[in-house]
What does this fold into?
Amino acid sequence: MFSINEQKAIELGESGEKAVREQNEYDALQYVEYLREFGEELLSADFETDLKRVAISLRNIGNKAVQKNFGSVASGAVEVVDSLAGSLVEKGYSNALWSFSKAAQEIGKGAAQVEMPETAENAVKALEKIGRGAVEKRMEVVTLWTTMSLEEIGYLAGKKQLEDLSNSAKDARERVIQFSEDSGFIPREQIVKYPQLISQTLSEFSDLQNLQPAGYGENRPNEEFTEEEFFEEEAEEEPETEASGKEK
It folds into this structure.
């Protein structure tokens, strides 16, 4: 069973997605704002697990907005991810921060694919902020994930000939890597190998080919993500996986 807080985050996300489907910009933005406020409440109460559901709902709204070419809502979702991530770093909530980095990653990748550079650029800024914070707090997985995400956005933007966005993502990734090295944390060699290791691991599982990092692997690289598949992947982190269908 979901907690009351998790259920509320799910319901806010579902309402936001519905508003996007109905092309109701005002309501969609309102639900994004409600998720910001709810996230701040959960932060104050130190409910890290429940915050992961807030990240999932923001990601789903943002993904749906990208699919519907609803730039204001997609950017709004990324901005809330960005604003809440700063507090997550301060509290050292690595698990929740990973969920927020995944939200920025997916919205940013989708925005690059459909040529929404402003939204994608916001995602790049959020990921760099999360990455630098992860280095400061010695969060290895989050650091590796954000650098991989920035590389993916840069790769996808390059394929769409969005050179400014591609360069921005590559530069942001380089700054996080350099900051990590300067801080005596994860060396460049390990960061560079991370997406390659993921690709090699996933290549052994045919049902997970859609999760291949963009630019790696030969079978169905994740250049055209489906929000449902990523949604299910995140749900597996929680013990209540049998109820994951409620999360959309």
